[in-house]
Amino acid sequence: MSSPVPSAQRSANRARVVRALRERGAQSRRALAEIGLSRSTVKSVIEELLDDGTITEVTAAERGTGRPPTLVGLKGDLGVAVGIEIANGTVRAAVCDTAQQLLLHDAVPMDDHTPPEATLKTAATLVGHMLDRLGLDKHRVLGVGVAMPGPIQRNTGVNGRATTLKPWVNVNPYATASSVLRLPLLVGNDANFAALAETIWGVARGMRDIAYVYTASGIGVGFILGGALYVGANGTAGELGHTTIDENGEVCQCGGRGCLNTLANADSITQKLWRSHHDRLSIADVIKMAQVGDVGCRRVIADAGRHIGLAAANMYNLLDPELIVLGGNLAPAGEILLAPLRESMARRAIHAGEVLPPVVVGALDEHTVVVQGAAAAVLRDSDRFPLPSLPRK
């Protein structure tokens, strides 16, 4: 019979199993043995965690699969993580439980010129209403992940000049959010969080080396390399939208010329149609019209795909990901964008056409992928966002 007070080693073993479940979701007992513990130790720890209500067994029916091994995962009632996305024109939020289930998501419009503190107060109000709808107290929140549309300088924590929300440039979002939200939090780039979400819930599930191209007001890439988010030495990894495509091209907001953003982001695509269509179309309008055969709309989307493919070829040559995922507001264009993207990439990549990774549309909705990833970053971080201590039975 085990001691009512676990030894230091037993506590360490429990922490390793819980950490693995937080990072990977529900796992088989065999898979948990691969974290470096013996099968007998894993069996003993799982029995203890089942007994004290930290984990639960997940049946095949709950996962909607055939007959896989019985899995164990964290119970969903241990707390919740909140994801917030500060985006152009909107603030989004999501609440996920410790079983990695999306409980609720919502959004409110927000003017791009709103000061950061006012934006965060709106976000806090939105989250408060969502918790009320779920019947959850604020103390059930393990932490909050806040996503920003641009690079965050790693050493200073300040938003860089490539941030597409100009009131946030040279602002420390962590410090500002801490004073408003008054909850444990982390802050990161939107594309990075979206990449994380796709590895947990989407088409990249279980993969260790992926590039997630997130299209919004700008075009960024979230990298998962070796199973971990890669942000670079200064926090600017993945700014694909500021790859130079035309040295003599249009001046970008970052100050450079001919950046990918000036040729292939949503604004550049819609602007190309103003003269021919005599209307200020949204990117959603352009995609819908392309899908029903509008030649002009199909042309500008295909052109954007070719430009993104050029930048993606350079990215592939440098990092060699096993999968490239497209998400965000251009993803609904599907093959209208992807076919020319792949063709452009194949012409320029090393060993063109031989070992290129698949390029696919993400599985998660463009309106939730970032907030899900922001919440997931909290759920995965055992050190900064510990689970509440549970009484031993």
Overall description:
By secondary structure, the protein is an alpha/beta fold. It has 3 domains: 8-74, Winged helix-like DNA-binding domain superfamily/Winged helix DNA-binding domain (Arc Repressor Mutant, subunit A, Orthogonal Bundle), CATH 1.10.10; 79-195 and 370-380, 2-Layer Sandwich (Nucleotidyltransferase, domain 5), CATH 3.30.420; 205-362, ATPase, nucleotide binding domain (Nucleotidyltransferase, domain 5), CATH 3.30.420.40. Helix content is 39%, strand content 18%. It is built from 14 helices and 13 strands. The chain has helices at residues 8-24, 29-33, 39-51, 60-63, 116-134, 173-181, 190-201, 261-264, 266-271, 274-277, 283-291, 295-319, 335-348, 369-380; strands spanning 27-28, 55-58, 71-74, 80-87, 90-97, 102-109, 141-148, 185-189, 210-215, 219-225, 228-230, 323-328, 359-361. The chain has a 5-stranded mixed β-sheet with strand order 6-5-4-7-8, sandwiched between helices. β5 (90-97) and β6 form a beta hairpin. The radius of gyration is 22 Å and the shape is globular. The two termini are 14 Å apart. The model is unreliable at 1-5 (pLDDT under 50).
Features:
3 domains; Nucleotidyltransferase, domain 5; Arc Repressor Mutant, subunit A; 5-stranded mixed sheet
